[in-house]
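Let us walk through a complete example step by step. Step one is to write down the protein sequence. Step two is to encode the small molecule, pyridoxal-5'-phosphate, as a SMILES string so that its atoms and bonds are unambiguous. Step three, shown after the inputs, is the structure prediction itself.
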Amino acid sequence: MSSPSAGVNTRADLDSLPNYVPGRSVPGAIKLASNEVPGGPLPSVRKAIMEAATQINRYPDMGATALIERIAGELDVPAERISVGCGSVSVCLQLIQAICDPQDEVMYAWRSFEAYPILSQVAGAAQAPVPLGSDHRHDLDAMLAAITPRTRVVFVCNPNNPTGTVVRRAELERFLDAVPPHVLVALDEAYVEFVADSDVPDGVELARTRSNVVVLRTFSKAYGMAGLRVGYAYAPAHVTAALRKVVVPFSVNGIAQSAAIASLDAKAELLERCAEIVAERGRVRDALLEAGFEVPETQANFVWLPLGDRAAAFAEHALERKLVVRPFQGDGVRVTIGTPEENDQFLEAARSF
Ligand SMILES: Cc1ncc(COP(=O)(O)O)c(C=O)c1O
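Step three: the predicted structure of the complex.
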């Protein structure tokens, strides 16, 4: 008997495509697995969401004009250089689709954001992962050496997910100066608001004067809007035009657009929350070091425990104590910084591992 799908072929290469593994949500457990912030929406953002909800019989503004104008104003850049997408993960995909022909190469450090290989393959591009250095940081020299005539996009995730490590101004400027002009460097700054090290450059400043640099940012992390899905790119105008061409129409919905604007209105308050996370990050890392763990210096809202083959066992141990963390088996465990109470509970679990 033929199966209901007989005759329909899906892409054979999808069999080798890894699934994106979201942080698990376990009822009754504390979730420290998805790099979310612990604070819920501010009253002003909630109000904007409620008001926008009355309009959902209408399509949203497809060009997200007000939001784009607002982001451009915040960054002091022309609006023609800003594009938005359904989370910055979608903007990553748009970027590959806008730049790469089949088999052009997308380069990224590994391990880094797990979506890079998936999105590259979905878009039909070839992948060029370059191992992180022994210090869990991007090895920019190795990346430079690995660039070929087929390399079209290089992601530099700063701070890097999942290790939290950063590339600093001097090394990044040296890298950007050396990258050939046919290569677009995407500075993925999903966690930029948690950076406290003044030697870490602001990608927007670097991109202002360079014609092959894109900056990707998101409202999901510091702005507390992971559930509403808005990310954006600051790119050269012709790249922005291409990003807008490949976007799925209406993919940033009206509630998300309004909430993002309201979040920018509440920026000071939201960034104060980030400062609390940064303080907690220092406390958590110090306690882990004291307990004997290796923890690379982190500038993001998470810590990385390079536990290798013990990663899954650590996650299991944490889950038994009602804590969901994010294991990358064989490599390590990423733990998001939560509230002080949540972090205390995590530290207790870590000490008993
Ligand atoms: C480095 C990095 N870039 C991009 C994203 C995507 O975020 P979003 O699609 O929620 O904007 C994430 C989310 O985890 C991330 O870690």
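Step four is interpretation. The CA atoms of residues 30 and 342 lie 7 Å apart.
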